[in-house]
């Protein structure tokens, strides 16, 4: 396994968000974190990246406690995309993606030819090569999100952690991004992301972590964790599965909505 959490408990303001969670994130797999608003999805992702101190439990990276891994080494191993990525005034797309190369060079060194090549390859992969010289603050939310994914790719990290990466994307680009993440997993990366769309989580995840509002977590394959009974209990929304096992939201008139 690449990343593992053992008996971690997360609290904010005295409220337990996650209690005693055991989780293994392995190369080649996509892990999706779901839960109602405020359940602790973002907090859990930050903890898995080593960005929050843990009072209970431990996160390990390739068997080594993450708390003992040097920040630069951690940045080379784990790439993190938060929900909000403010654009610095005047920063170009190229410069934004080059930031993903910082963990690979000394603090005084400028970008190398290899750095620039990897930036170009990363932008090509997310369909943003034509935007290289554009200012980041001139892009739409969806375009900027794809640039941020390119920055993650430029880090060459084995673990990719993304917080609601499809939130600013239309349906087509959301599916493209998830397909890219699936391809990265097939290449051997471990991918962890939070999603609010349950049918998409069900369709793309190898493993689901479901948080509720009481600190309880459920971990396992989508077909078990996202059972209609569990979804109803956690989210208060009526879902079922069709004859093919596809998770569907039941609308009041009896129609159903799936991930498409």
Number of domains: 1
Q: What CATH first level would be assigned?
A: Alpha Beta
Would you identify the regions where 5 or more consecutive residues have pLDDT less than 50?
Answer: none
Find the CATH superfamily: P-loop containing nucleotide triphosphate hydrolases
Principal-axis shape: globular
User: Count of helices?
Assistant: 9
Q: Classify the fold: give the CATH topology.
A: Rossmann fold
Which class do the helix and strand fractions yield? alpha/beta
End-to-end C-alpha gap: 32 Å
User: How many strand elements?
Assistant: 13
Q: Output the strand order for the largest sheet.
A: 6-7-8-3-9-10
- In this structure, how is the largest beta sheet organized? 6 strands, mixed
Written as H for each helix and E for each strand, in order along the chain, the element string is EEEHEEHEHHHEHEHEEHHEEE
Helix content: 25-40%
- Approximate strand percentage: 25-35%
Describe the structure.
- The chain has one domain: 3-Layer(aba) Sandwich (Rossmann fold).
- Helices cover 32% and strands 25% of the residues.
- The chain has nine helices and 13 strands.
- The protein has helices at 41-48, 71-77, 93-98, 113-125, 141-155, 171-186, 198-204, 222-225, 228-235; strands spanning 3-12, 15-25, 30-34, 56-61, 64-65, 78-81, 159-163, 190-194, 207-211, 217-220, 239-241, 247-250, 256-257.
- The chain has a six-stranded mixed beta sheet, with helices on both faces. Strands 2-1-4-5 form a four-stranded antiparallel beta sheet, covered by helices on one side. A three-stranded antiparallel beta sheet has the order 11-12-13.
- Helix 6 (171-186) links the parallel strand 7 (159-163) and strand 8 (190-194).
- The radius of gyration is 19 Å and the shape is globular.
- It starts with a strand and ends with a strand.
């Amino acid at each position: 396994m690449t990343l593992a959490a053992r008996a971690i408990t997360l609290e904010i303001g005295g409220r337990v968000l996650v209690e005693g969670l055991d989780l293994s994130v392995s190369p080649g797999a996509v892990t999706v974190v779901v839960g109602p608003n405020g359940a602790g999805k973002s907090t859990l992702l930050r903890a898995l990246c080593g960005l929050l101190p843990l009072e209970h439990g431990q996160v390990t990276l390739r068997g080594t406690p993450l708390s003992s891994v040097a920040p630069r080494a951690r940045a080379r191993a784990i790439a993190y995309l938060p929900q909000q990525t403010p654009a610095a005034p005047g920063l170009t797309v190229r410069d934004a993606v080059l930031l993903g190369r910082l963990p690979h060079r000394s603090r005084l060194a400028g970008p190398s030819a290899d750095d620039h090549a990897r930036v170009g390859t990363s932008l090509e992969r997310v369909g943003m090569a034509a935007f290289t010289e554009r200012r980041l603050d001139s892009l739409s939310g969806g375009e900027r999100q794809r640039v941020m994914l390119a920055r993650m790719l430029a880090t060459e990290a084995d673990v990719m952690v993304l917080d609601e990466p499809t939130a600013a994307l239309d349906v087509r680009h959301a599916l493209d991004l998830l397909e890219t993440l699936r391809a990265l997993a097939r290449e051997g990366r471990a991918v962890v992301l939070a999603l609010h769309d349950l049918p998409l989580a069900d369709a793309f995840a190898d493993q689901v972590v479901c948080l509720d509002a009481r600190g309880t977590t459920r971990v396992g394959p989508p077909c078990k964790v996202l059972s209609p009974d569990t979804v109803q209990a956690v989210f208060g929304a009526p879902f079922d599965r069709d004859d093919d096992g596809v998770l569907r939201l039941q609308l009041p008139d009896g129609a159903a909505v799936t991930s498409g």
